[in-house]
């Protein structure tokens, strides 16, 4: 059984709104800065990439690793966070 962080639970519990990219589970200051430098400054921008990849968590995790240098756990945490958010709100 996998456990989720408080950050993850908070994110998936409410609408996206104008949340910062660092509000995503698995994305801290360092990865957030790398994503912001590429134009992914808000969580909804990263969600857009997730949707472009047809909500495929494995493809998204690989994209995130390439785009930000995230490790496998960080990428998987972010993918799971976005997947659960989509299940709750889309």
Characterization of the model:
By secondary structure, the chain is mostly helical. It has a single domain (6-89), classed as DNA polymerase, domain 1 (Orthogonal Bundle). It contains five helices and no strands. Helix 1 packs parallel to helix 5 and helix 4 (57-68) packs across helix 5 (72-89). The chain starts with 5 loop residues before the first helix and ends with a helix. The model has no long low-confidence stretch (mean pLDDT 95).
Report the uncertain regions.
none
Overall structural class, as computed from helix and strand content, comes to mainly alpha
Instruction: Please tell me how large the radius of gyration is.
Output: 12 Å
Largest sheet: none
Distance between the termini: 25 Å
Enter the CATH topology name: DNA polymerase, domain 1
Return the CATH class.
Mainly Alpha
How many distinct helices?
5
Order of helices and strands: HHHHH
Domains, number: 1
Topology record:
Blueprint lengths: L5 H7 L16 H9 L5 H10 L4 H12 L3 H18 L1
Question: What's the short story on this structure?
Answer:
By secondary structure, the protein is mostly helical. It has one domain: DNA polymerase, domain 1 (Orthogonal Bundle).
What are the main properties of this structure?
90 residues; DNA binding; mainly alpha; BAF; globular; 62% helix; BAF_sf
